[in-house]
Design goal:
- Helix content is about 35%, strand content about 20%.
- It has about 270 residues and is an alpha/beta fold.
- It has 2 domains: about 100 residues, no CATH class; about 150 residues, Rossmann fold (3-Layer(aba) Sandwich), CATH 3.40.50.
- It has a 5-stranded antiparallel sheet, with helices on both faces. The chain has a 5-stranded parallel sheet with strand order 8-7-6-9-10, with helices on one face.
- It is elongated, with a radius of gyration of 22 Å.
Length: about 270
């Protein structure tokens, strides 16, 4: 669950009148398991999100539940040295803040900027595995396919930042995609793949343009793209095969892990 989905869940709980505590890492110095601004939401029965696990998180959950039960007073921000205080090996220190879930605390909850925006063409096995992997990462995704049935059975929660739709013209959608977005082309049709890749490579404001397939597919596409008048240097920017070459395997889940690793290794655009 990414930060946007966690905030969405907190908003639902607030609307339902459920009591909860927001636990936030307000500050971090040195080595720590999560960055400043990370939150988790704790109720008497459950907890969503994580501030890094370990003794720190266990202590924070216990404190939050004492606050909910009225057996503890609301503390000022806690400053904790992870090693001396909690026996954790991180070596850094953190500042924790506890506050009740309320309209004000929800309004003050700033979400991190997405790492990237991904346009994903194709809702087959690899596409579904990739979206499932990225659900816990702060990214935004536009997911398109020509087949309505390809999206059947998608989970309805935990995918904040994801939009999906059925399109009659994926190539036209590629032409309208946001500037600097990354693109992964993995439809059920090589002909459709080519039309999308051609449209994307005619643009000069894209991030990664990746095409699922083999070296043979790449060479075939290179010849056809050249015949359509694309410059050799732009054709060379097409990434095919996609994925981290260190990760071997053809199972959809393995390919998805490889592709996710490749995307997350790209520089974050400001």
């Amino acid at each position: 669950m990414n930060a946007a989905a966690l905030k969405q869940r907190a908003s639902q709980w607030l609307a339902q009148g459920r009591s909860a505590v927001l636990v936030e890492l307000r500050g971090v110095k040195g080595s720590a398991p999560r960055d400043a601004g990370t939150r988790m939401v704790v109720t008497a029965e459950t907890c969503w999100g994580t501030i890094g696990g370990g003794h720190l998180e266990w202590m924070a959950q216990a404190t939050a539940r004492q606050l909910l039960s009225g057996t503890a007073a609301w503390p000022s921000p806690q400053r904790l040295a992870l090693g001396p205080t909690l026996g954790q090996c991180c070596g850094g220190s953190v500042e924790l803040r506890y506050e009740p879930l309320s309209p004000d605390s929800l309004a003050a909850w700033a979400l991190p900027a997405p790492r990237f925006h991904l346009c994903l063409y194709g809702a087959g096995h690899v596409g579904q595995a990739l979206v499932s992997l990225l659900r816990g990462v702060d990214v935004t995704i536009d997911w398109l396919d020509t087949r309505e049935e390809a999206f059947a059975g998608l989970p309805s929660e935990g995918h904040a930042g994801l939009r999906w739709w059925v399109s009659d013209d994926l190539s036209a959608d590629a032409g309208r995609a946001p500037s600097a977005a990354h693109h992964l082309v993995m439809t059920h049709s090589h002909s459709l793949d080519f039309d999308i890749v051609l449209r994307l490579l005619k643009r000069h404001d894209t991030g990664l343009v990746g095409l699922i397939g083999s070296e043979t597919k790449r060479r075939h596409f290179e010849g056809r793209l050249s015949d359509r008048g694309l410059a050799a240097d732009r054709i060379a920017e097409l990434v095919c095969p996609i994925g981290d070459p260190r990760i071997q395997g053809k199972e959809p889940a393995v390919v998805a892990v490889s592709v996710a690793a490749q995307l997350l290794s790209l520089p974050v655009r400001s």
